[in-house]
Design brief:
This protein has about 375 residues and is an all-alpha fold. Helices cover about 75% and strands about 0% of the residues.
C-alpha cells in the first residue's frame, strides 16, 4: 500500500501534470526524468520528484526554453539565468520577424491582393528573419504533420519495405564464407549495431532515425549472420554458411512479404493492424513457410533440431516486427511523420525490435 502512495503510473501522471504520455516518454528518452521500473510487471513508476520535475519542464517549455537547454540546466552545464537570457534574445528576433510579417500583411490588405496577384506581394526574403522563419515553417510542415491511420501505415510500410530490400541486397552480396574467414568484420558489424541502437535511444531527431534506418538495414543483416556463425555447429547449420546465408535472406524476405500482407490487409479491414493476435498468427504462419522452404532446399543437410531453432528464431523476429507495427496503430492519433520513421527504424532493427518487444508486451510502452 505504501508503494502505491509514493509511485504513480503514466496515465495518472498525465492527468496530474497535464501533458501527454508521448511527451512524458519523450522527456524520459531525453534524460530529463528517470522513472523507476516495477520488477514484477516492468511498468514505469513515477515518483513525486518525477512529477515535480515534469511540472518544472512544463513551465520552462511554456516560456519557450528548448529541451536541450532544459537538460543542460539539470546537468549543471547551463544556469537558468543564461537560458532565460538566450530566450529573450530569441524573443527579440521573433518580435522583429512578427513586425516584418505584420507590415507585409498590412500592405497586402491595403493593396487588396487576391490569390491571383499574390506574386505582387513584396517580401525581402533575403533578410535573416524571413530565412529563419521559412526554415522553421517548412520543417513543421514536414515533421509535425498529423497523419491518418492509413497515411501512417503507408509511410511505415514504405520505409520498412525499402529497408528490407537493402537488407536482402546486403546479405546477398556478402560472400558465403566471408564472415567465417573474416570474423573481425562481423564483430565490427555487431559493434555498429549496438552503436546505432544507442544513438537511436538518445536521439529524437527524425533525420537521425531515418539515417539509422538506412544504415541499420545494411549493417544488421551482417550482424545477424555473425551471430549465427558464432553459435557454431548444431544451430542453423553454421558449418555450412551457405545455409545460414540463405536462411537470413528467407527471414528478411518473409518480413517483406508479411509487411505487404498486413499493409494491404489493413486497407481492406483496418482491424488487421489493430489486433495483436492477427499479427502474431500471420507471423507464426510466415515462420512456418520459412522453415518449410529451408527444409525443402537444405533438409538433407539439417537436423530436426536445427530446423526447429530456425523456425523459433523466425517466429521471434517476425512477431516482434509485426507486433511493433500493430502497437503503433493503437495510438495512431497522437503520431506524425517522425513516429512513422521511428516505428520503421525499430522494425528494421533486428536486435532493437526483440529488445523492445519485452517492454511492449509487459509494460505496453510505446515511446520509451
Amino acid at each position: 500500500m505504501e508503494r502505491r502512495c509514493h509511485f504513480m503510473k503514466i496515465k495518472d501522471v498525465e492527468k496530474q501534470v497535464g501533458i501527454s504520455k508521448a511527451n512524458i516518454r519523450f522527456y524520459e528518452e531525453e534524460g530529463l526524468i528517470h522513472p523507476a521500473r516495477n520488477q514484477e510487471n516492468n511498468y514505469r513508476e513515477y515518483s513525486e520528484a518525477d512529477v515535480e520535475q515534469l511540472q518544472e519542464i512544463k513551465k520552462l517549455r511554456l516560456i519557450g526554453i528548448p529541451v536541450q537547454e532544459i537538460k543542460d540546466i539539470y546537468e549543471n552545464r547551463l544556469t537558468l539565468q543564461e537560458a532565460l537570457s538566450h530566450r529573450l534574445d530569441e524573443i527579440e528576433k521573433e518580435e522583429r520577424t512578427l513586425k516584418e510579417t505584420k507590415l507585409t500583411c498590412q500592405k497586402a490588405l491595403k493593396s487588396k491582393l487576391d490569390i491571383t496577384s499574390i506574386d505582387q506581394l513584396e517580401i525581402e526574403e533575403e533578410k535573416e528573419e524571413w530565412q529563419v522563419r521559412l526554415a522553421i515553417l517548412l520543417k513543421e510542415d514536414i515533421v509535425q504533420k498529423k497523419l491518418s491511420r492509413d497515411e501512417m501505415n503507408n509511410e511505415i510500410a514504405c520505409f520498412f519495405i525499402a529497408g528490407t530490400i537493402l537488407s536482402v541486397i546486403s546479405i546477398w552480396l556478402l560472400p558465403k564464407d566471408y564472415i567465417g574467414t573474416h570474423l573481425y568484420v562481423g564483430l565490427i558489424s555487431l559493434a555498429a549495431v549496438v552503436g546505432l541502437l544507442i544513438i537511436g535511444t538518445c536521439s529524437a531527431n527524425m533525420k537521425v532515425h531515418l539515417t539509422l534506418l538506412l544504415l541499420g538495414a545494411v549493417v544488421q543483416p551482417v550482424g545477424f549472420f555473425t551471430i549465427g556463425t558464432l553459435m557454431g555447429s548444431g544451430y542453423i547449420v553454421c558449418r555450412d554458411t551457405a545455409v545460414l546465408k540463405q536462411y537470413v535472406i528467407y527471414l528478411y524476405g518473409g518480413a517483406f512479404i508479411l509487411a505487404i500482407i498486413l499493409w494491404m490487409g489493413s486497407k481492406l479491414n483496418r482491424y488487421i493492424l489493430n489486433k495483436l493476435w492477427i499479427s502474431m498468427l500471420a507471423s507464426l504462419i510466415m515462420a512456418g513457410v520459412i522453415a518449410q522452404m529451408l527444409n525443402q532446399k537444405y533438409g538433407h543437410l539439417m537436423a530436426t533440431g536445427e530446423l526447429i531453432v530456425g523456425f523459433l528464431c523466425a517466429v521471434i523476429y517476425l512477431a516482434a516486427v509485426s507486433g511493433t507495427w500493430t502497437l503503433a496503430n493503437a495510438d495512431w492519433g497522437k503520431y506524425n511523420r517522425y513516429h512513422a520513421v521511428y516505428t520503421s527504424n525499430k522494425m528494421i532493427n533486428v536486435f532493437a525490435t526483440i529488445f523492445n518487444a519485452a517492454g511492449y508486451y509487459s509494460g505496453k510502452n510505446w515511446r520509451r
